[in-house]
Write a structure and sequence with these properties.
395 residues, alpha/beta, 4-stranded antiparallel β-sheet, globular
């Protein structure tokens, strides 16, 4: 035990990202639930206070122009873009992940070559994605084909319009092969739509490099945007001129203030907008993105893998044999930034962990899920979490 504690201390001392922890409002709790809700950056309350008191309280309607409210969706999208491997002008922020999944799926059916009437869906997808894909299939007259991500290449064919996949499995933390599955979709003549909720801000994505067609993601997990912060939509540049949103709201009109009864879409990523932006939440997100200044996704990925490796090593050393089983892949190429452990009586175990200051979360019926957010989680956190887990299980 002392050896692992000493190693954790040495690893934290050598960690180039360790100083970023001071940018967050954290206490002595080991917070391993940033894959559900990221921690609050310390400077955000003051920035939001300015939005409330000066921009809204004093400038009022003038802030749409003078404070840059109107252009916030594209401006913030351009700040997120490098974190997911996209060039400027390809990401727009607004609405929820679910709404953006709907936009992306229906738009993809309209972008796909004629005669294609199947939507291939990730069998392990987050439930909302599945619900929306099923509804979109009914609305567009498409057939829904459900396949495990590993089996997707075999499910693709001349009738496939698009495939909707999660980059990281929210239950197990498995990282799917985004480059390979995107290439397989394109080889079949279909489009690739990716949900990045559990990878954006946790690892390199490479949307432009790998030729992804459309992608969506939330901002309240690894991007620390705050509860319910708006999601983002990525539209590859080659699709922007033909992107036909199923939700053509007034703010995506080429001339929104003309109040034209006929819809003419704006150019570029602006087409992904719908209605009036949620300014308070959006500007809190914009402020939170300051913590990424000077950080590379390669450094984040290196630390993420080191953290999860070390946590698994500590679990193996501390936890009595047979009490937990990792369902997260050991191979780095197949692992996101979380570790999921199957455990009998998982609900009670997680309650006990939280009571002792180690916060993860539960995925029923038997998964203990621990998210490792490299900007503020350290190796001492990983060691303590494994040690407390052992104490709970021994008790």
């Amino acid at each position: 035990m002392s050896d692992l504690k000493e190693r954790a201390q040495a690893l934290d001392t050598a960690d180039e990202l360790a100083p970023h922890r001071e940018l967050f409002a954290l206490d002595d709790t080991v917070y391993l639930d940033g894959n559900s809700l990221g921690a609050l950056p310390r400077h955000v309350p003051d920035r939001v206070r300015d939005v409330l008191t000066r921009q809204w309280g004093e400038l009022r309607i003038r802030s749409w122009e003078e404070s840059g409210w109107w252009t916030a969706p594209e401006r913030i999208g351009d700040r997120i873009a490098p974190l997911v491997g996209a060039a400027p002008g390809r990401v727009v922020v607004g609405d929820s992940t679910s709404v953006n999944v709907f936009k992306a799926v229906v738009a993809a059916t309209r972008l796909a070559p004629g005669g294609r009437d199947e939507i291939v869906l990730d069998a392990t997808t987050f439930p909302s994605d599945g619900y929306i894909a099923e509804s979109a299939a009914r609305m567009t007259g498409h057939r829904l084909v459900v396949a495990d991500p590993l089996d997707v290449p075999g499910a693709l064919g001349p009738r496939t319009a698009l495939v909707l996949l999660n980059h990281v499995d929210y239950r197990t933390g498995r990282l799917q092969d985004l480059p390979g599955l995107t290439a397989a979709a394109h080889a079949a003549g279909a489009l690739a739509v990716w949900d990045l909720c559990h990878s954006a801000g946790a690892l390199p994505v490479g949307l432009d490099t790998h030729g992804v067609d459309l992608a969506v993601g939330c901002t309240y997990k690894y991007l620390n945007g705050g509860p319910g912060s708006p999601a983002f939509l990525y539209v590859a540049e080659r699709h922007q001129a033909a992107f036909d949103s199923p939700l053509p709201g007034w703010t995506s009109h080429a001339d929104p203030f003309a109040m034209d009864p006929g819809y003419t879409p704006a150019e570029g990523s602006v087409r992904g907008r719908v209605g009036t932006p949620d300014i308070l939440s959006m500007l809190a997100l914009e402020a939170s993105l300051d913590v990424w200044e000077g950080v590379t996704m390669e450094a984040v990925r290196t630390k993420s893998l080191a953290l999860t490796d070390f946590f698994l090593e500590c679990v193996d050393a501390y936890v009595p044999g047979g009490r937990v089983t990792s369902v997260t892949p050991a191979a780095h190429a197949e692992r996101g930034s979380q570790v999921s452990l199957r455990c009998e009586g998982a609900a009670g175990v997680m309650d006990a962990l939280i009571a002792r200051g180690v916060v993860g979360d539960l995925r029923r019926p038997d998964i203990l899920r621990f998210g490792f957010t490299p900007l503020y989680v350290g190796f001492a956190d990983a060691e303590r979490a494994a040690r407390v887990l052992a104490e709970v299980l021994e008790a």
